[in-house]
Amino acid sequence: MEWSARRLLAVAASAGILSMLMLRSSAAMAAPLPVRVGVVLDLTSDAGRRSLTCISMALEDFYLKHPSYATRVELRFRDSRGDIVSAAYAGYFWYCLARSCRST
């Protein structure tokens, strides 16, 4: 094999490897997959408002430390207004709505 053929082969191999690496990194930077998580808190109480702040800050800190995660947790907050039975039923209702539950 002469010098120019080897050089051409090396350039082609390098270009192939670089293109594979670029495709891999662009796939990693694709839009994150959302994971919706419901959180029911009593926002009329101090503890509920503090919990809302702490949960939000913890999630923000986690993604600042781990920016390459392919999933993103999306928190869906609901205020129970101190009524835990209604809050539990609302969570069950939305779960069933998303999953097409049937009452037996």
From TrEMBL:
Alphabetized InterPro entries for the sequence: Ionotropic_Glu_rcpt (IPR015683)
Protein name: Glutamate receptor
